[in-house]
Amino acid sequence: MTMAEVVEAVLRRAQKQGFILPREIRAELTQAGLDETVWKDVVKQTAASLHYRQGRYYYVTTVSPRLHQEQEHQRAIAKVIRQLVKHHRDQMKERERRGQERFDFIHSVKVRTDEGKELHLLSRDVSTTGIRLLGTQRLLGKKVRVYFSPATDQPEVCLVVRILWTCSVGDDLFENGGNFLEMIAPNKGDAT
User: Fold this and answer.
1) 124 φ, ψ (degrees, to nearest 5)
2) Of 1, 139, 156, 167, which has the highest C-beta tally within 10 A?
3) Beta bridge partner(s), residue 170
């Protein structure tokens, strides 16, 4: 059996099964009396018909022009999104002024203002020195209590935070960032 016949046998098997494994390609070569170490050469010759994904070579069926165009659009969109994310990450690295590392900490928190108003906000990230909160209120300059309710049987945590900056991130949606001032007992009086 020649290399061309092995390539045909590999393609037939991949078409029948929907995919072919590398060991099956090597088995086809061994059965043909050829050296199984040249299996990658077989793969190169079948590149137009087989697509490698997660350890398997999938048989590529004929794709309609419309589907092909849709796939091209999706690849273009994915490329643009990857570039946007990379650009955003690069900008964030340049603008980062904090001395402490931030951690993503998306968690529902209860916030009590110094006027006694209770708000339910979303924490966005946290560091050892501060927190960023997302909600429908501007809190610039306020001293607030942030209540964290840990999971399971751990006690509630209350931290006093001075809000140092606020920015609008959408219609009636604001980010508020502040520094931790102290930790207090959650049941301590409402005045901050």
Assistant:
1) -110, -50
2) 139
3) 173
* Residue 66: pLDDT band with limits 50, 70, 90: confident
The residue-averaged pLDDT of 141-164 equals: 85
Q: Kindly report the CA angle at 56 between 53 and 58, in degrees rounded to 5?
A: 75
Cβ neighbourhood burial of 105 (10 Å; 0-12, 13-18, 19+): middle
Alpha helices in 32-169 (DSSP H): 39-45, 65-95
Q: Tell me, what's the pLDDT at 192?
A: 42
- What does pTM read for this prediction? 0.49
Task: Give how far Cα 141 sits from Cα of 18, 40, 43, 67, 186, Å.
Answer: 63, 65, 65, 55, 22
* Spatial separation of the C-alpha atoms in residues 30 and 42, rounded to whole Å: 13
Q: List phi, psi (to 5°) of 112.
A: -115, 125
- Residue 108 tokens read as 């529902």
Structure tokens at 63: 């794709």
Q: For the purposes of burial, counting CB atoms within 10 Å of the CB of 13, is it exposed (0-12), middle (13-18) or buried (19 or more)?
A: middle
